[in-house]
Amino acid sequence: AKRLKHFLLIFFFSSCIIYSQEKDIIANYKSYTEAPREVVYLHLNKSTYVKGEDIGFTAYVFNKQSKKPSLITTNLYVSLEDENNNIVEQALLKVEDGVASNVITIDSTYALGNYTIKAYTNWIRNFNGQGAFIEPIKIVEPNIKNDTNVTPANEKIDAQFLPEGGHLLHNVVNSVGVVLKDSNGLGIANATGKVMDKNNQLITEFKVNHLGIGRFLLMAESNNSYTIEINHDDKEHHMGLNQKVEPLGVTLSVVSHRNKAIVTLITNNESLAQIKDKPYALALHNGKEIDIIDVVFKDETTIIKMFDLNTLPAGINMFTLFNENKQPIVERLLFNYNGIQTIKPQKVVARQVQDSIEIELNINQIDPSLFNNISVSVLPQKTASYGHQHNIISHTYLKPYVKGPIEQAKYYFTDINEEKKMELDNLLITQGWSSYDWNNIFNNPNTYPHPFERGITVKANFPSKDLSKDGKPNYLMYYINDDSNFMVSESELGQTSHLLESLFPKEDNTLNISKVSNDNKLDVPSYYLQFFPRVIPKLNTNDIGMQVVDVITEEKIDNFLGGNLIVKSSKNIQLLDEVVLKGKIDRKLERQNALRARSFGRVFVVDEQMDNSHTFLSTFLESRGMIVDEEKGTFTASFPTGVNGPANMFFDDALLIDTGILVRYFLFNIDYIEINRWGLGDGMRSPNGFVKIYSKDLSHPRFQKETSKEYKFPLTFSKKKKFYAPKYRYYGDDFYKQYGTIDWKPNLSLDVSGKIKFNIPEQDVPISLFIEGIANDGAFVFEEKSISLN
Q: Are 537 and 484 in contact (CB under 8 A)?
């Protein structure tokens, strides 16, 4: 009985420890991941550019957890930096429905060499740049000697041997990932290797794939040492394994088999004596959700857990094992392809249409009624200038969860098969721990100094002497100079500032502000303005991305010396608009008489004098003898004879059911007003009379000069520029086939029949389409398609 009681106490105590540990891990994890994350991807039309070309890009901003377009942020920063991290170009773009696009022109001021293009939101800066887009591009010029070549790889091999889960354990079978790279950081293809023990006896052999990735199994012994012999290009390279064999611990292995994920936790006999009955915890998480599974080693050194891939989240799943002290000791990443929604065009048709080619994409899996955006780069089929490391799928589902750069990440998501799934699993073994740092998770301050941004916010500070004398709020009116819509801001009682939010000024826009004085007149303000943001913020991150895949050798460039040059870009041809000069022929009296001739009531054309006398519609109608009530957000205007109710209110000939729009409505928004006391001309609909209000397309010269002050925005949104394909001297030589640009379509969408149609210039060479995009509220469009036009 005593023994049983002792056992129950131990069991109860252990259960409490396990429960407390689980609760603590889950609470910290949920606190760390509850704030949304964003991921930015740029579909670039090329990776290698020639001076005179345009860099065309479409930006996709995603919610990291849902993989759907982010609808929170509207501000996207894009910068282009040279090899010395100097910013040569930067812009602020407006994101709508998670998408933005624009163009960067590579003019004569650009030096040849390697550049990095970055795209990020302000919110991404809270997470050390995780989620930003960072990718190198290259700029070359074919008619001169280029010094931009990647240094030829020497014979030295950078070899890394990384145990699955993070460490080797004595006297158990360990899976070891292999990464072989050259001096340029690119994978060494198809090399073979041998693993030898301290007696130079062969233990096992392995072979890496075309990206230098592989794996082997090793029964590790702490009293042994291991060397590796790599054979590449008929040369042997010898190196140590450089991994300590731990005498005590636990390993974690994950294998996918028949739609199951088999997780195996293995310890050795030496460790079992120390960890037996201790409460371990296996966490399964994906950056959004977490589940904890109790793990207790009893008499066996192996524990197996099985998971159905159909029930695991799509994409990266992370398995982390915690010891009894809540310390993460091993971790393994698994990629689940199940549930990723990818779409490809079922049919691509090219047909001649006069002097151009019409391309038709048939994509019937997309619902045209849902938002979709497709971007397409059109290049010669033999192009060597589209060497991106990522596509839209790999950059969204894979990159944000791993620490290091991934060579040719898009390879694992192109023509997916079982072999590629295994190769990606080998890659994940070599990645070790995920980008989720448990030290940060357990010590998360939950502070986010860089907020979500929606346009430009302006704080207009006014002196206390301008406070309303009657204790009512202050009002100001403002507009952006290419917009005819006036906006009104009301300050809170006692506040000495106005907050103007969600402004989207373009490059040459200014902000024009008038203050409304105590007697409802418009005056020139003396405000001090603060703008948020006022500069493009810097992205701080250690991520430098992988280099451009295409290595342009000196021999390649030499072949083009004196060859095909970019002759002229269409953007250099400017078509001038027709200019018509007119005299001012509209006079108030002439117009008022003309309007009265076709009206049954009295017509008043709003002019400067009326503006100054009556700031609001309500005060004007009161001056015409009407009784106006605009309290509680409703607007009624009655004639003294309208004993049966208020007059009907019309706005641009539409009868207003909800008249709230007219509350404190400014008179200068109105072109003219018709007041009809008896409702003549409106039949039986207006027995109490009516007021008809007609809006005008505002121009503001009087308002600007006399009652407003103009302020410059320190930061504005870039105007959307048109992409121009360059003109070449020759359209058939090797230079054009490898480095020419045909066209770029950044914002295509399906018609109701599920088709996309666009035209490209007539071509004498086969072409390739590089298609990416989003559709169906969570699906990704990706395809690289070659077309022969003959």
A: no
Output phi, psi for 124, to 5 deg.
-60, -30
Structure tokens at 603: 């017509």
538 to 115, 120, 534, 717: CA distances (angstroms): 16, 10, 12, 17
Q: With contact defined as beta carbons under 8 Å apart, do 88 and 81 qualify?
A: yes
Task: Tell me whether strands 510-516 and 342-343 are parallel, antiparallel or unpaired.
Answer: unpaired
Separation in Å, CA 472 to CA 468, 494, 495, 518: 6, 9, 11, 9
| Dihedral pair phi/psi, residue 386, rounded to 5° | -120, 75
CA distances from 68 to 109, 337, 340, 371 (A): 38, 17, 12, 11
Neighbour count for residue 201 (Cβ, 10 Å): 8
Cis omega (within 30 of 0) on the bond before 533?
yes
Confidence category of residue 376, pLDDT binned at 50, 70, 90: very high
Greatest CA separation for the chain: 114
The amino acid present at 291, given as its one-letter code, is D
Average pLDDT, rounded, for the chain? 86
DSSP-derived secondary structure for 239-297 = EE----EESS-EEEEEEEETTEEEEEEEE-HHHHHHHTT--EEEEEE-SS-EEEEEE--
- Cα separation, 464 vs 238, in Å, equals 78
Beta-strand runs (E) in 64-132: 75-81, 87-94, 99-105, 113-120
What is the pTM (predicted TM-score) of this model?
A: 0.80
